[in-house]
Amino acid sequence: MPKPLIIGHRGASRFAPENTMAAFQLALEAGADGVEFDVRLSRDEVPVIIHDDNLRRTGTTPSRVADLTLSELQAIDVGSWFPSKEFAGERVLTLDQLFELFSSTNSLLYLEMKCDPAERDKLAQVCAGAINLSPLKSRVIVECFDLAGIATIKTIDPTIRTAALFEPSLANPPFITSVKRLVEQAVAVGADEIALHHRLARDRVVEAAKRSNLSVVVWTVDNPSWIARANASGVTSLITNDPGLMVRHRDLN
Fold first, then answer.
1. Which domains does the chain have, with CATH numbers?
2. Cis omega before residue 4 (within 30°)?
3. What is the full DSSP assignment across 203-251?
4. What is the pLDDT of residues 157-187, one digit of tens each?
5. Closest CA to 189 of 159, 161, 157, 147
6. CA–CA separation, 186 vs 192, rounded Å?
């Protein structure tokens, strides 16, 4: 496969409403090697593709995702908020619908579990169940900032591939973040990959991760200069809002 792999952040979210069918289709058309997306549970415990815990930003309603059934969620227009009005009428997708969209592709699927501790176990169980029922299982990577969620997935099914997510903390800015601690935390929960915010993706972190047999993913980068940087340091994948731009520049080299 080409290097680095280019992964569409919530689809091609620069050009279409994030986490919608339109955004994922645009990512495919752009030649992305995969997509990243967010999963929460509806009130009736259906895994749905949405980032925020409410629809204030993308659905122009303050309703919480966890308070609405699937049918109620899918009655909401999650495309009209986007500057380009051609996407009016886009609906919240289910995880099964996303799997169906990618069933005829070779795309990698980075599934980010969005959970708090109270719903961690249920969300992990539901996601693992859906993954195991899907022929796409070998192409799904479950990622989470809540590292206990990664450990839970591995307890349910050790064969599901996982990525430990890290972002800079205000209390621990990147220049004093412990490299050893990041990698140790990822290894401790059984992660197969480490997904680093671009401010954390320093050479020494990447090297430490590689020594621990962790594939390295960097998010969210839209500058093509990251392609050469990723190849030089051994970063496996780049997550981007503009997969078309990144694919074009990668394939020129």
1. 5-252 (3.20.20.190)
2. yes
3. HHHHHHHHHTT-EEEEE----THHHHHHHHHT--EEEES-HHHHHHHHH
4. 999 999 999 998 755 555 545 878 999 999 9
5. 147
6. 8
